Amino acid sequence: MTLVSCVSRTVLHVGSGVYRPDKLHSLFSSSEWREVRVDIDPAVRPDIVTSITDLSMVADASVDAIWSSHNIEHLHAHEVPVALAEFRRVLKTDGFALITLPDLQAIARLVLEDKLDEPAYMSPAGPVAPLDMVFGLRASIAHGNHYMAHHTGFTARTLGKALLDAGFGHVKVTRDEASFNLWAIAYVTPPAGVDTAS
């Protein structure tokens, strides 16, 4: 008996970095999802080499989901609307973007406590301090990976507004203060049962 894979949906993993299965959010871990990796750095061998501000090689309304983990903050502020509009353009009508990035409000609390350069948590790349969360991981930047520098940042309100301004029909942003992250899910079309009037 031959088992046939039933891949039916595509997730565009933007800013994917080096390939590791655990970098893909668990939401996309089933066999129904096919990952297409996008990164600006050819050294990480993505499927598509490009900036997230130019997804022109991806057709309109052709992907089911976008997974964006800690890369929008690497853009300059004026590039953010361009990238989010590209996300919106390539998603199907019933598609969505799942996004996580640093929560500047949570980080600011540590800065107010004068813990700017003290490790807040340990990552696979080493200790991460508020300074790294705001400006980019210093160790990576020092080793020549200038793509790791941060050029903008968000609060829950500004992230939600940016996604709505990009044309998403429904956006939900949550804060994970323990990890100093924001999480957003942005739907092209509001899911059934969602009241968008309020």
UniProtKB/TrEMBL annotation:
<keyword id="KW-0808">Transferase</keyword>
<dbReference type="GO" id="GO:0008757">
    <property type="term" value="F:S-adenosylmethionine-dependent methyltransferase activity"/>
</dbReference>
<dbReference type="InterPro" id="IPR029063">
    <property type="entry name" value="SAM-dependent_MTases_sf"/>
</dbReference>
<feature type="domain" description="Methyltransferase type 11">
    <location>
        <begin position="48"/>
        <end position="99"/>
    </location>
</feature>
<dbReference type="Pfam" id="PF08241">
    <property type="entry name" value="Methyltransf_11"/>
</dbReference>
<dbReference type="GO" id="GO:0032259">
    <property type="term" value="P:methylation"/>
</dbReference>
<protein>
    <submittedName>
        <fullName>Methyltransferase family protein</fullName>
    </submittedName>
</protein>
<dbReference type="InterPro" id="IPR013216">
    <property type="entry name" value="Methyltransf_11"/>
</dbReference>
<keyword id="KW-0489">Methyltransferase</keyword>
